[in-house]
Amino acid sequence: MDPARGVVPRADVLVIDGRIAAIGRRLRAPADAAVLDLQGKLVQPGMIDTHRHMWQTVLRGIAADWTLGNYVDLMFGRFGPLFTPDDVYAGSLLGAIEAVDSGTTTVVDWSHNMRTPQHADAVVDALLDSGARARLAYGNYAEPAQDWVLRGDIDRLRSERFPTADERVTLQIALDVFTADFPERPAWTWARDRGFEITTHAGVVGRQPADLPERLRDAGLLLPSTTYVHATTFTDESYRLIAESGGTASVAAESDLHGGQGYPPTEKLRRYGIPTSLSVDTVTWFSGDMFHAMRATLAADRGLAHLRAHEQGGLVDINELRALDVLAHATIGGARSMGLQDQLGSLTPGKRADIVVLDTSSPHMTPMINPVGAAVLQASTSDVDTVVVGGRVVKRNGELLGNGFARARRLADASRDRLRAAAGEKLWREALNPSGR
Ligand SMILES: [Zn+2]
User: Fold this and answer.
1) Contact at 8 Å (CB) between 198 and 172?
2) Backbone angles phi, psi at 363, to 5 degrees
3) Domain assignments of the chain as residue spans, ordered by start
4) Where would I find the Amidohydrolase-related domain in this sequence (predicted)?
5) What average pLDDT does the chain have?
6) Distance from the CA of 255 to the center of ligand 1, in angstroms?
7) From the centroid of its chain, how far is CA 367?
8) What is the whole-number distance in angstroms between the Cα of residue 51 and the centre of ligand 1?
């Protein structure tokens, strides 16, 4: 992912004090260095997920057959209000550990169930305890943004808990706009004036204005640091404005295809030159690893191109979106979206040592011909051999180190049971087999 280097065969990676110090053949390491023998394996940058609602992890898989309408009714309307600070702690902890286990070293935890200050503190605790690099995107879908934002709990959280040691966990704000008259504008202005970077679900079909960037421009709120999540159905002018502003998009292809948020917009993003990252969204519904996110993105983009060509009686001659492109979206694209492209997203001397090693000895990785193709289209979480976050080894030989997962599993099982009891069996059954709206 470092264009100056490309794919380097048989290289060493030297890490000193949490940062990459050198990459090359036969590097000399300090005498007291720990040496990991990774011969025959693939070494890549840690992946970056720019939008995942980790508080929901304790309800993994409950939404398998949901539509977006089911999600709004059931997750936001029925289950969300039942979550206590202990539940969001358990979900965020397990979600971050799951991310690291699957080679996602950095997650933007789109935490939009901050009903009380205790919920917010619980999420910070979980992210610090997890070992992952994370950005807490503080949100609260339960109230209009103009109400909860102006109460200022995120200011309290920032002054009490940030910056964290080694800045492994950082903070931003998660704000959505639902109607064309933009009643959330005071909240956006407040966030801008206090220097909070904004991530926003935007351009979702049937739920959000297709010209949000135009409204943001008119309000002086079109900011270079904003991440537009989904970004499926904007006007051409809105895509142009995002590109011009320096904003970025987070493509949640699996989510868009299952839920109906709109078609994954990779073709539009390319056309307008909008920097792109990828995201999982929620494991209540979809896969929790970036391998699936990369595959869904690539398949959606190519599938649409084929369909269009076939409808015209023709064929696609060449695939525009390449495996290398989506690996870039999943790594350096995520770093760019977070404004951390100088720190994360590629194996480059000086950057933080967030490193993922893929084993290549399984039948589905044999024989090795195309390392990028293998990482994008063949690999899965079972191949993630070693994970390093900021120079600290958190997974080795396919096993998470420490007892963090055992604890997270206990807490998540207990949270699931508590939420089921609180929901009641009728709602639980409806969630598992939704009858429609
Ligand atoms: Zn989302």
Assistant:
1) yes
2) -55, -40
3) 9-28+36-46+345-401, 47-338
4) 43-394
5) 96
6) 8
7) 31
8) 6
